[in-house]
Amino acid sequence: MNTLKLSMLSSIDLAKGKPLKVIIFFALPLIIANLFQTLYTTVDTIIVGKYVSTLALASVGATTPVIDLLLGLAIGLSSGLSIVIAQKVGANDSRATKRAIVNGFYLIAFTGISVMIAGLLLNHSLFKIINVSDELMSGALTYSTIIFIGSIFASIYNYESAILRAHGNSVVPLLFLILSALLNIILDLIFVIVCQMGIAGVALATVFSELICCILCFIYMKKKLDILVFEKDDYAIRLDYIKEQIKIGLPMAFFQSLLAISFLVVQSALNTLGSYEVAAYTAAYKMDSLMMQTLSGFGTAISTFSAQNYGNNSFDRIRQGAKSMLKITVILSLIVMVFAQLFSRQFMTLFVNESEVDVIRLGVQYISFTSCCYFILGVNFIVRFVLTGIGQSSIPLGVGVLEVIVRCLGTYFLVYPLGFTGMIYINPLCWGTSTLLIVCVYPILLNKTFKKKMKKAQ
């Protein structure tokens, strides 16, 4: 136990030790980091709702699917690149690892710059497409413009974290992220309450915090990781590496953006209901986000675990780790469900004043139903990320396409006829259909991939 704790300060070899133990030790910092990442937007939302206005809260909420649509490309690509690097690490090939890191940086830098340009050029048009009202448009444009200007910092930091995770280090990104989150809170309070900068202050606080996080992580990696000592030959653009990284990373990037497209469809319908409904959904959805970020930590851990063991041909460890994590995530989902049922009203009052009775009522209604379906989401994350870790990158893309279809159908048949009540059913419906698909193909793809790898190794 002491050896494992000490190794966590640098990295964990996920190909050794008891699967459940090493996955949990690796996952805990990831989960905390994800929660602090969510803290950025949650604190922004709280401060906007409490200290600016409910209208400003709705404006920030209206930007979410558009920002996720474009930033999702960089975040998803980083996750895919992490899988490729982790497989090289698992195979103990330092030269291949270095070349994968360099060519991955070329890809992520290009993607980050492209996201910034696309966001600045298209944000107004996309807001029009999803029916953002005139009263929300000004605030939405202010917030999204500043966020997109800083998107390059977010892209690079996510890649830096991906490199560290691929080497089994999940603690250092957490430490930097905690520092950045605390700075974000301080800057929020200064820019919004002291300087009276409103929505612009909230966005600037986020961008400055991400920039500092990006710089500190780079400094640490340069000083502490021998793997980042490159030779001249390592900087060459290698099409075979880029092709491999695109093969795994691009479907994961598209998965993130496809999810955002499906949310755009829902947001478009939501924006026609009114500012109270938008504000209620913006606040209540934070509960879903917190749960997703927790499960995402387990998912990232199991994908890195699977990738390293796949590179090491330890197939039984992958199966054992997956079974253990399924039990953990289902139990956690049930615990969160009970918490959500008991404290949903208190959760809503974090974002709006108690006088906003209609907003609180709608938010409680949303939380009470969707929290009962978190266990489905838990199964989804584990199974999907195991397949991703062994290189089955088509799975995230297939899930994304399915969720777009389901959300579009759900919006037409539920939200438009039923209003906000229909909104409540959309996420559980998507989780259920995509989980059913993944669970059905999981054993087939797992066995097929393992057999192919064994033949290649012979």
Fold and architecture overview:
It is a single chain. The chain has 458 residues and is an all-alpha fold. Helix content is 86%, strand content 0%. The radius of gyration is 21 Å and the shape is globular. Residues 1-9 have low confidence and may be disordered.
Report low-confidence residues grouped into runs of 5 or more: 1-9
- Give Rg in angstroms: 21 Å
Report the span from N to C terminus: 36 Å
**What's the total number of strands?**
0
**Portion of residues in helices?**
over 70%
- Helix segment count? 15
Question: In what range is the share of β-strand residues?
Answer: under 5%
**Average residue-wise pLDDT:** 81
Quick overview of this protein structure:
The chain is mostly helical. The protein is built from 15 helices and no strands. Helix 4 (94-129) runs antiparallel to helix 5 and helix 14 packs antiparallel against helix 15.
Secondary structure topology:
Blueprint: H1 2-8, H2 19-51, H3 54-90, H4 94-129, H5 134-149, H6 151-166, H7 171-194, H8 198-224, H9 239-271, H10 275-311, H11 315-348, H12 357-370, H13 374-389, H14 394-418, H15 420-457
Descriptive tags:
single chain; 458 residues; mainly alpha; 15 helices; 0% strand; globular; disordered N terminus
